[in-house]
Amino acid sequence: FWRNKMKKQLLIAAVAATMGTAAMADISITGNAEYKYTHTDNSNTNATTNGATTEVNLKFKGQHGDTTVYLDQEFIQDNSTVNQSTASDMLDIENMYLTTKVGPLSVTAGNWAGSTSANTGMIKDNARSANKISASVPAGPIKLGFWTTPGNGSSDGFTVSGSVAGVNIGIKEASNQYTDIKVSGEIAGVSYHLDNYDAEATIDDAFYGMVSKEFNGVTLTVNHMEAKRGATLTENDGAFGKIFEGDGTTYKISRIAGAMDVAGNAVTLAVLNSTEDNGSDNDAVKATVARTLAAGMVVTGTYQNVDNRVADGDTATTSLELDVSF
Length: 326
Hints:
This protein is mainly beta. It has helices at 2-25, 87-90; strands at residues 27-42, 47-64, 67-78, 91-102, 105-111, 132-139, 142-149, 152-164, 167-174, 178-187, 190-199, 206-215, 218-227, 250-262, 265-276, 281-292, 298-308, 313-325. Strand 7 (142-149) and strand 8 (152-164) form a beta hairpin. The longest helix has 24 residues, at 2-25.
């Protein structure tokens, strides 16, 4: 009796273990952790500041058949805020959405941030959506899409995307707001990305362009973005490295950069020029050196000098960042 009972218990335990493994098999956790030290020197105020930020990002992914659920969490602590000791200060639930298939339809629902490579990505801050739902269906070489945010009548529209004759095309129409047309691709070794933002109110029209080509191991890139007023350009973490962009007053920015490998270090040198609504011109230089260590840690050192002639004077910033992905 006891022997049979023991066999049954072992069988139940084995089945339970197998079921637990199967349940866990479609769940994955990835992320990264970074520590960043920043030293800032301002010539206008003759003040220097030191600060640091510790950040851990966790990305959860669960899958069942054709349905995938995403949940991204950010844990952050910095000393730029006097009181950042509560959970609400340190924890941010970022993307939280699901994707699935309904026949030929691909459906995404929830809260997610837009990409800077997507339509309007470099021009507008494609902030995390609020319970948005989008659906797309293939139509030959292109996809037709529609999105809406329930309860918000001004947040809906359609998209057209795909590749035709080697040219990537994206059209985004937001009801009573704007029509955005984006093209990107490569011609004779020259990569390009052009984005025209045609707003319902013409004062908010904008354009972004990028061309890039490699010459003898050095990749040269030119970026230019221009609107009719600074308030239109709301993306503050795009191609211009958080310099001038999205400050609410800069309506035109140009950047020339060279990227190269120097003794195993990824080096990027850039110069920038911008114009504010009041007509004042500002300049900046930025140098970045990144290296991957044997332990998997990426070390990035950055120096930038921003000359804002009217508001802030000459601000020099030096930072060192440690980043590891897992």
